[in-house]
Amino acid sequence: MMEHINWIHNIPFFSIFLAMLSGILTALVKNGKTAYKIHMGMVLVVCIMSGLLLVSLSAKNEMFTFMMGHFPAPWGNELRAGPLEALMATTFSVVMLLTVSGGSQFIFKDVVEEKQSLYFIMLNALFGAMLALVYTNDIFTAYVFIEINTIASCALIMAKGTPQSMVGTTHYLVISLLGSGLFLLGVCILYSITGHLLFPQMQEGILELIKTEAYRMPLLVVTGFMFIGIAIKSALFPFHSMLPGAYQAAIPTSSGILSGLVLKSYIILGIKLIYCVFSAQVMHTLKITEVLFAFGLAGMVMGSVYAMKERKMKRMLAYSSVAQIGYIYMGIGMASPVGMTAACFHILAHAVTKTLLFICCGSFVEDSDGKEKIYHMRGVALRNPLAGIGYTIGALSMIGIPLLAGFISKIYFATASVYSSGKMAAVLIVLGVSMVLNALYFLPSVIAIWTPVKGEEKKPAVTNSPAFATSIVGFIILNLILGICYRPITHIIQTSIELLAQ
Amino acid sequence: MKDKKSFWEHLKAWVDGEEVILNADKYIATRTPKESLNWHKFFSVQNVKENKRNYAVLSVGITALFIGIMLSVVDALPEFGSPYNPSNNEVMVRYLEKGIEETGAVNFVAGMILDYRAFDTFGEANVLFLAVMCVVLLLKKDKKNYSAKEEQENQEDDFFDTNEKRPILQIGAKMLAPMVILYGIYVVLNGHLSPGGGFSGGSIIGAGLILYASAYGQKKMQTFFTFKTFTKICAGGLLTYCACKSYSFFTGANHVGYEIPKGIPGNILSAGFILPLNICVGLIVACTMYGFYALFTKGDI
Question: Which member of A175, A356, A366, B145 lies 3.0 to 4.6 Å from A242 by CB, making a disulfide possible if both were Cys?
Fold first, then answer.
């Protein structure tokens, strides 16, 4: 009876439930260390399962839907997994594993001891919600897990318990809720004009509406609402104001996860909406892609300009995230499969790089007595060379130096611009400007951390914990893998985007 | 001022356009630089925020624009309750026609949220759980967020709770709270038979607990409802939900296992997993409601 079960197809369901289950179990655990072990074990298992799923799906180049319960598609919930989803889930779990192991020292230092297990509940739930956003095939499920994502990310920011983190959390919460609210309005209106909540049925409904020209105005508004909602959630340029305060006040581990993964989970949901609900052609007719493209370009430049003005390292990194999100939206806005491939690759590259930068930055802050300005961090890399190397590699990758992940995504963006008529000049010019700006704010900080302070007695070298060292080395290796052996990954992304667009 | 200019100075003056004006040097020396409007500053967020009227006009304008868009969308939406609406499709027909047969629940809503679309409800139950855990993380007393002054205030509150005579409230609560809680339990247990269910029944139970706590003080509540019980009930409820639904999703998706007996629709023991799931959701909601109250008033459960 059990032999005809396709275990591979159960992986998305297992991953989500395992993450949520360990979140619930952690509530019964009082000790932070035990909670940490449960979390790491869970992420490791999910990582292995997602890897298996990725290997199996990309070998067969197939996608499947998984029925959540006894009832088929338009009546019950559904999950959907293809190579893209599996790739994202694998990357998320690897990055999560490395970030939490590297950042565990900050968690145990900054969070009050009796509340450490609560922090891990939130981490587990956040991970489960991100997986659900990646795998979902149902717009209401997406909304529910967006809620979980929002609550858990706010908890991660406020876990430090300082007044700044409260202010940061409040700001983050208000803007996030605006995004969720717009998304929910979108879901409601879309349901009332199509009558469905599952992606494929909704897509049929929308294509029918486009053909009959019925409900033209609600459809336009709803598309706008959904994508503005997702843009607010993922901090696209004019909606980025909550990032710097929140990331500065949070524990570096939280900042890394929020910037590297949480923002990306919303973007992946957006990509799935584009292909599976609205379909690329409708997006093009409604000119939504053009709007995303314009905001993406603006974000690329403005994020970097803001970052140049910052003197505090974490705020600088937060603004740099704004610029990088701009890159991703530019790729989406090109409205071509090539542009989308570049955007997806940049999601991976940024996830791997920005978390590394935040973890290293957290360690710098700790080594320079809690001071956050780059000025006070002079010479800190000489005392902690490993974190210094990590930061340097991350910065170079963000600038786009060959052999590193950031270079590949930039070259793909440039290539993609050739295929989108009328946008080539804009893309190439803004890409060039933005890269120069990136270099203008990242290089000074790199130079600062490697320059010794004159006339000051030498402070002792910092010893890193093995977990931190492994995490930094792991991130650097991931960065090099994405920068050198990128072919198979872009191949997977390309084929899976073709699958999505069918 | 020098009479003789060097070639370089001449060139500079020519480039600046000063040679053409008579007595240019004198003019330049006396004129005050014209105040130019700093466009960057003018439109900066700081300036808009400082100038309250701009801010108000801008926010009212944006809000009005949004209200306008929303109203026009509502106007263009399908008419409420019309039989030709897009939402009046095969999905709803099956929920209504086959709902009792397929889920065993007479209450269609319970069948929908706890059987057809149980994954969403699992998410919602987790939302509640996480929300209350978030409040615990924020407000539960610890050495960072709790000062000696607050401790003193809390002790004074406790003193009044134990010593103050509030006969009307206390007798009222003593009589009402059990009935409220009993009614909540009824709503939860009959969730699959009549309107109601875990969410509404749970909030009624929670209201009963809050009534009791506000009349007799938290000390008395802690004799039977501590933080430990609270986490155990919440986690237990969610674990049961998780286990039931994992089983149901796994067997459903892979077409294995035996059907959960649905019983006779209308009986109290019917509708498969819906009754236990309703109980789980009810427990979680009741704990969440009371947890919010306790944490916001005393910072502890």
Answer: A175
